[in-house]
Amino acid sequence: MNYWLMKSEPDAYSIDHLAVQKKQIDHWDGIRNYQARNFIRDDMMMGDLAFFYHSSCEIPAIVGIIEIVSSAYPDYTAFDPAEKYYDPKSDINNPRWFMVDVFLKRKFRHHVSLKAIRTETELQDMRLVQKGNRLSILPITKREWNHILMMEN
DNA sequence: GCCAACGTTGGC
DNA sequence: GCCAACGTTGGC
To answer: What's the CATH fold of domain A3-152?
Structure first.
């Protein structure tokens, strides 16, 4: 059982987009970074929990909790030239990119902003607050997970 | 819109 | 394998 943080730009896909999906389940597509790909393909497991993080927006923040409800499978949007994240180098017989399905467990009553996270001495080791971090999938320790849950209240 | 920090690409 | 050029991410 692992903990993660998963980033999405709310203009492209926010937690409310997930909330209106049937059964509140959707696929998490568009990962086009090898390190993030390796995390979801090799380390992510069904039952893992993740924070849903809004990036590149007015108030970057953790906005809810999602559960991983599939194992990793090929990201089929990479095969479709009409898709934004089409990648001609991803072969259907040897897929380069993967995705998982996620289920919305709950939206936070109070968002936990990046700004607030930066002020917590207990969270200074998080890659999220370190300089130059661009990874869209980040592992989180149980200690960090619990601390952020505490910050919500 | 700016820009720092990466990651990727491709010539050599 | 090196590295300059280029593209992207994401906070501010």
So the answer is: ph1033 like fold (3.10.590)
